[in-house]
Amino acid sequence: MNEIMTPEKKRILEYSKEKFFREGFYKTSMDSIAEELQISKKTIYKYFPSKDALVKEVVDLIMLESSTKIFETVNTDEDAFTKIVSMFEVASGIFIKFSDKWLNDIKLHSDHWERIDEFRTKKMYSVLTKIIDQGKEEKLFLDLSTEIIITMLVACIRAIVNPEFIYISKYSFSQALAIVFQIVFEGISTEKGKKLFHKSLDRFKK
């Protein structure tokens, strides 16, 4: 996605993203995309030489949009808890658009799940390190190892942001994330932090 994004390519990419989110990509043909967009298949292949290339660019677009929204969310003057909740509100807003078909196809019919998992893990480590350290300075978190806190939190999040968990769990992603927050942050917060945490958590549950 380094080349200039023409309006035509952007239209194909955005449409394909929404279609893949709803219906998955494994059984979606390039013919159906071309027909629904009322363009020739040749036009699609001008920008995307194969369906896998199209899926890859959709995944790249998701990661770019996620990074941009998270950066905008955490680079504010808000307290650490507000930033964490805002960050995962963004993640929930993206994740809730994914159908079971999309998640299943990504997991079973491509190698993109590994890319997504690596991306989100690196992103979470980077962003959460800054936020946890900020929280310590604000006296919201106990003076515990930032590395261990983040390793534990990232492991929990990776476990629930997973197609297999979504299939078998009775909880939505937001509900599961709220429980993870409660378990982790009740344990690492000061009394001042706990009060602010409960306010932030109430906002996240709405």
What does this structure look like?
This protein is mostly helical and 206 residues long. The chain is elongated and about 60 Å long. Helix 4 packs antiparallel against helix 5 (80-95), helix 7 runs antiparallel to helix 8 and helix 8 runs antiparallel to helix 10. It has a single domain (59-205), classed as Orthogonal Bundle (Tetracycline Repressor, domain 2). The model has no long low-confidence stretch (mean pLDDT 88). It starts with 6 loop residues before the first helix and ends with a helix. The chain has helices at residues 7-23, 30-37, 41-47, 51-74, 80-95, 100-108, 112-137, 146-160, 163-168, 173-188, 191-205. Helices cover 77% and strands 0% of the residues.
Features:
single chain, 206 residues, mainly alpha, Tetracycline Repressor, domain 2, elongated
Span between termini: 36 Å
Helix count equals 11
CATH topology: Tetracycline Repressor, domain 2
The CATH architecture name reads Orthogonal Bundle
Secondary-structure-based class equals mainly alpha
Helix content: over 70%
